[in-house]
Amino acid sequence: MKNLNHKTRHFIVDPRSKFLILLLNSIFVFGGAGGAHPMMLPIRHVLIAIPLFFLLFEGKGKSACIAALGYAFFYIIQVTYFGLTKGLLNHMLLFSIGFFVRILPNVMAAYYLISTTTVSELISAMERMRFSNYLIIPIIVMMRFFPVVIEESNAVADAMRMRDVRFGGKKISKLLEYRFIPMITCSVKVGEELSASAIARGLGSPMKRTNICNIGFRGIDFFVFVFGILTIIVFSTTKM
Amino acid sequence: MSIVKTNKLTSKDLVTVGIYTAIYFVSMIVVGFLAFIPVFIPLMAILVPILGGIPFMLFLSKTEKFGMITLLSAINGILMFVMGMGIYVAITGLVFGLLADLVVKSGHYESSKKALLGYCVFSLWLFGNFIPFYIGREAQIAMLAEGYGQEYANALNTVMPINMAPVLFVACVVFALVGGVIGKAACKKHFERAGII
Amino acid sequence: MIKLEDVSFSYATAKEKSLKNINIEISKGECILLTGESGCGKTTITRLLNGIIPNYYEGKLQGEVLINGNNIKTMELYQMAAIVGSVFQNPKSQFFNSDVKSELAFICENMGMHPKDIEERMRKAIKEFSIEKYIENSVVQLSGGEKQRIACAAVSTPNPIIYVLDEPSSNLDRQGIILLRDSIQKLKNQGFTIVIAEHRLHYLREIADRVIIMDEGEITSTFLAKDFFLLSKEKIEKYGLRSTSFKDIGHKSINKTNFLKNELVFENFIYAHKGQQECLKIDELKIPQNSITAVIGNNGAGKSTFSKCLCGIYKNSGTLTINDEKQKYKKRLSSCYMVMQDVNHQLFTESVIEEVLLSMDQENNERAKEVLEQLDLLPFIERHPVSLSGGQKQRTAIATAIVSERQVIVFDEPTSGLDFRHMKEVAKELKKLSDKGKTILLVTHDLELIFSCCNFIVEIERGIVNSAYPLYGNTRKLIDYFEIGGNAVEEKKVPVPPKKTFYLRG
Fold first, then answer.
1. CB–CB of B40/B155 below 8 Å?
2. Is A50 helix (H, G, I), strand (E, B) or coil?
């Protein structure tokens, strides 16, 4: 097994922990559960930091750093200046702060889950969470297909600019149609090829699937879970 | 067709669900970003059903078995939940998906009236987004004030008054009808003629 | 091994039969090349062999298809996957995993093999195809040829006895084809039965045993490969096939072109994707106005980036001077036009005529029809553009370019996957456009197309212009560039075009 294990990743987090991180982020950071309670603040920062650190260990330090800087900058603005401005500037600030302070951490957690998990790991984790095959197959196909839809959508957008179909250009009323319909048409076409190929490779066979990946709880997962429990305990105290 | 049709979902059906969930979800992201602006939050009840009509009606043309609509709706709900829309979306996604599936099934996956009705029911998953404004409203507003500033919270408080619920409900159904009709028209005008149905 | 008895098939969506009374018998270890014009049914046969028909694409199937003694009608697709390995043409859709290692294990995992067993099989495939160095890569980092090699290796893991390849070379450059040929040769050496549907023939010269030519769903003739590759160029063209060798590709007929004095001058075409190294760096490039210029280079050399910069799709990317007018990217958005490789991206409306009207500043039905008539599209004006054939779609896009009065038209791989007749049609179209005074740039790997219409060559390598020369007098140089040597050349690692999107474990 020399070649396969030659450069194995040293840093492996169980996909279930990644799920948990994403979930906690979306409830407590994006969703803002727990409100302005002082105890929630450090908890939130740890929640935001976990996926960024993990990304760093996975060799994706660059995107992690950019996200961390963006977050820090707007967080400081939020604490110091926010509320001092009015009108349009305020709205723009609101928009950027909303994006960098709430959405971005969530996006990074999702990015962390998607970019560092193989299909095999993901399926294996979902199987251990007792998901049925009826859910697993659509979910992995969907995750595989997202980039394709986005790519097709971008290509259509390029073509629209080249043909001068844009806001302020010709036929504004049909803008949505021109953007939407080709995107769907092209995606469906690629999707058909993708399904044919995946099924010809045995996806969804009734035989019990095996996985070569090696997932399981390790120390780092333990840390994530303990922190998850801590978050929930703190959250419930804020309710009291 | 030489293969005997079963009522059980085949892997082809499951893959199809995955593909259309991705397309539907990407379409939702496009409008989802608008929800940042307070005024647009109630407008979601108009925009989401209208825009979703096209991919959903195309998806219906590929469904002929019970379960596909439920799956699409449930997974979409889970995704929305994971993206931070609150736990209620996951529940409404599953419930209204199942109901929509039953409605379309009663038309044997062929009747276009039932398809339209099914889309109206399906679109109600969106309601899961609004529930936090009604259950635990105080907390929601306070939380928004903390996160986005008092101005934002106030704006939302005005555009989402408590008696808005039935209005949103009706809007959701009405504009799902509109979206469904648009979707049907798009299928006829584009997808059928383009040969992808 | 494989037996088709009186097989007819029509797709559920089509009225006409795609296959009519096909009889083929293939014995073990044979390598069969299926060829013929686009739409002749060769892809349909490959789909029958790997069971995608009738399990995935539905339709009416008559006759018997026996694979290794089993009738495909009684077999499920996942059972077929163990016997038949399938390689498809589009890397965008054929891989399910984003990293090479998972892709290699994918089929076996689906079949529920024991992990120890899977690892054993992967090790074997890695050795067999010598792909050790790619094993930790993600799929997007690979070139087209490497992708097809991984695809071959991945489908070989469950030890199928039959391999079916559907136009595996259509997205490949010169080096990719070398690598692909080598992969197929490896399969053949192991004694597997191989069926390849393909319209590019030259690279299969030493591999194929038998050549089956099809037309409109029927087998028109069958040759032993050694006879087939001796056929004269005229005979091959009569069958509507691509040339079987670069030797007689018709470069003798190239005449000297007198270019206009005017030139298009590209200055400072420098572009880097966000946060990445520069992938295009052209300080100055001159091409004759009114020429048909072929832009050649390996995949990832920067050709597509160059064409996107040229058309103004990428912002702030250099100046183009036409007729002493300096054009920045904004201006170029309306003076240059690209016919994309996947034309579907740029067709928005519900009918051909609307498509053309949309591109006009002032809608003018007469003018639109006039242009469509010149492009032989008049009978289709009410058709949905997406439902047209590939060539008709391209012509629709060309029509929109003509009516919007673009000076420069870029074609991105217009003939990938086209047979001889359609390739010639494209060449004719390009010449017509050039006669109208348009300047044409053609991004292509297709030597036959270049000889059919181009008169100027620009060679791009790693983002810079390697050389730019008129075709006349330099045909030998060009053939040498495209010629595939007798031995597989180790593929050079080319920089990978960056991707904006993220992948599962990218």
1. no
2. helix
Q: What is the enclosing helix (H) or strand (E) of B167?
A: helix B164-186
Question: What ranges do the domains of chain C cover?
Answer: 2-238, 252-482
Which of C325, C374, C328, C381 shows the shortest CA–CA distance to C355?
A: C381
Expressed as residue numbers, the domain containing B146 is 11-192
Question: Cβ-count burial of C247 within 10 angstroms (0-12 exposed, 13-18 middle, 19+ buried)?
Answer: exposed
pLDDT at position C154 is 93
Q: Is residue B2 part of a domain?
A: no
Nearest neighbour of B193 by CB, restricted to C12, C77, C350: C350
The answer to whether B70 faces chain A, any CB pair under 8 Å, is no
- Whether residues B58 and A22 touch (CB distance < 8 A) is answered with no
* C419 close to C241: Cβ distance less than 8 angstroms: yes
Token pair, residue A150, equals 């986005």
Find the DSSP H helices in C327-437.
Answer: 329-335, 352-358, 365-374, 390-403, 420-435
Number of domains present in the structure of chain B:
1
pLDDT, tens digit, 9 for 90 and up, residues B10-54: 889 999 999 999 999 998 887 777 776 667 778 888 889 998 999
Domain ranges of chain A: 12-118+214-238, 132-200
| ipTM computed for the complex | 0.88
Q: What is the mean pLDDT of each run of 10 residues along chain C (506 residues)?
A: 92 87 94 90 92 87 90 86 90 87 92 92 92 86 86 92 92 86 92 93 92 93 92 87 76 72 88 80 90 89 89 87 89 91 90 91 88 89 89 89 90 85 87 90 90 91 89 85 54 44 38
Cα→Cα distances C329→A156, C318, C374, C499, Å: 19, 7, 30, 22
Nearest to B148 among A98, A133, A150 (CB): A98
Measured in degrees and rounded to the nearest 5, phi and psi for residue A18 equal -65, -40
Mean pLDDT over the full length of chain B:
86
Q: pLDDT value at position C250?
A: 62
Q: Do the chains contact at A197 and C88, CB–CB below 8 Å? A: yes
Query: Rounded to an integer, what distance in angstroms lies between the CA atom of residue C216 and that of residue C39?
Result: 7
Touching check for B190 and chain C: CB below 8 Å? yes
Q: Which CATH superfamily is domain C2-238 in?
A: P-loop containing nucleotide triphosphate hydrolases (3.40.50.300)
Q: Collect all residues with Cβ–Cβ distance below 8 Å to B19 and sequence separation of at least 6.
A: A141, A142, A145, A187, A188, A191, A194, A195
Give the angle B41-B99-B121 at the CA atoms, nearest 5°: 35
- Residue-wise pLDDT for C46-81, tens only, equals 999 988 888 888 889 999 999 988 898 888 888 888
Question: What is the model's pTM?
Answer: 0.89
Report the CATH fold assignment for C252-482.
Rossmann fold (3.40.50)
Is B6 a member of any domain? Answer: no
What's at C170, amino acid-wise? S
Question: Is residue B178 in some structural domain?
Answer: yes
Q: How many CB pairs under 8 A join B and C?
A: 34
Contact list in A for residue B144 (CB cut-off 8 A) is 32
| Interatomic CA distance for residues C227 and C208, integer angstroms | 11
Asked whether residue B169 is domain-assigned, the answer is yes
